[in-house]
Write a structure and sequence with these properties.
Length: 378
């Protein structure tokens, strides 16, 4: 089965894990610190904070910024549920915003403005598929409305422009991302004060870590804030340090494969829409396409699976999930719904080649030729 995404793990990662285990120190320590500094250099920024997941990163950012009960945070519904969940974690209310269009499935600036209230305190921008939002436009909007700007950059590691929009950005190293630590995440924050508050909050609000107390030969510590257990461990950091060395090359392979997909789809099945444009700044995490309204998506998914090709959907809209539909039953996002109903994510990862892209597009064409119209299926 050709998978939609695939972690690339080999001898170097195994050796790094063995070295971490043999060091006798596997909780947060020197490898985590080295990972933070290396990730920061890759993003051309001063420092970063490594955490246990991108969800933890979003939670810590919102918490450290003081967002809480009575506040509203603008979020897209076209995202993974963790984006909205993190807002609930701090007691605030997520307000779902529609996308611009099927060709530009990022949060609509116009609708974000319409949904602002006196309670709106922040905006979480999601760089869907690795494609960055319009930084200048969103910065101007946030400044005009007095809002905190936060990036959910789960899909955009290795792209220096990610993390430069507002107060802070959250990154993911989950197993299906551009690089992986199995589970894990990182935070880039604009100010050192915010970064240090986040760093302390990730570890129970303690004023020193176990490793720091060992080095200082003092067992004493204090707790000066409510904190959490959102730490990264040495094993994940060891894997991450190996992965970071390859991330730029892997992202470049993704870029070239994405371009090849675009060219072939335009030539062989022009009725399929490929969102964004060739020139759009992206880490190329996903290869999303939008099927014609007359095509039955599930039948096409089954056809491709029969050819040994996995596909998936990004995403079931958060406002349509049972939990959120029960919380906010009157949420109406027609463009998000239309996109989610027709979107299909094709395989894209660095172990693919141009020939494999051609195979996928060939299977896509044959599946569409054999398709029953959606109306007939219904």
């Amino acid at each position: 089965m050709l998978l939609v995404s695939k972690p690339i793990l080999g001898a170097d990662e195994k050796a790094a894990l063995v070295a971490a285990i043999e060091s006798g120190w596997i909780t947060m320590g020197e490898r985590v610190r080295e990972f933070e500094q290396t990730f920061a250099r890759l993003h051309e920024t001063e420092d970063s904070v490594a955490v246990s997941s991108c969800t933890a990163a979003l939670h810590l950012i919102l918490y450290a910024l003081g967002i809480g009960p009575g506040d509203e945070v603008l979020v897209p519904s076209l995202t993974f549920v963790a984006t909205a969940n993190s807002v609930l974690y701090v007691g605030a209310r997520p307000v779902f915003v529609d996308i611009e269009s099927p060709a530009l499935p990022l949060m609509s600036l116009e609708e974000a403005e319409a949904k602002c209230t006196a309670r709106t305190k922040a905006v979480i921008l999601v760089h869907f598929g690795g494609y960055l939002a319009d930084r200048d436009a969103w910065q101007a909007f946030a400044a005009r409305k007095g809002l905190l700007l936060i990036e959910d950059a789960a899909h955009a590691p290795g792209l220096p422009a990610a993390g430069t929009f507002g107060e802070a950005a959250a990154f993911s190293f989950y197993g299906n991302k551009n690089m992986t630590t199995a589970e894990g995440g990182a935070i880039i924050a604009r100010s050192r004060a915010l970064r240090e508050k986040i760093r302390q909050a990730r570890s129970h609000g303690m004023t020193s870590s176990t490793r720091q107390r060992l080095a200082s030969r003092s067992p004493d510590y204090d707790v000066t804030m409510l904190g959490f257990n959102h730490r990264m461990d040495e094993l994940r950091a060891a894997v991450g340090l190996v992965q970071l060395k390859r991330l730029k090359d892997w992202n470049d392979i993704r870029r070239r494969l994405s371009l090849h997909y675009r060219q072939l789809i335009a030539q062989r099945c022009p009725s399929i829409l490929v969102p964004f444009t060739n020139e759009w700044l992206s880490a190329h995490h996903l290869m999303p396409v939008v099927l014609p309204a007359t095509i039955g998506r599930q039948t096409l998914i089954d056809h491709l699976r029969g050819q040994g090709i996995q596909t998936t959907i990004h995403y079931p809209p958060v406002h349509r999930l049972t939990f959120y539909n029960d919380l906010y039953p009157n949420c109406h996002l027609p463009r998000t719904d239309a996109f989610a109903y027709r979107e299909l994510t094709l395989p894209l990862h660095p172990e693919m080649t141009a020939d494999i892209v051609e195979l996928v597009v060939g299977a896509l064409v044959s599946g569409m030729d054999a398709e029953l119209p959606a109306e007939a299926i219904a």
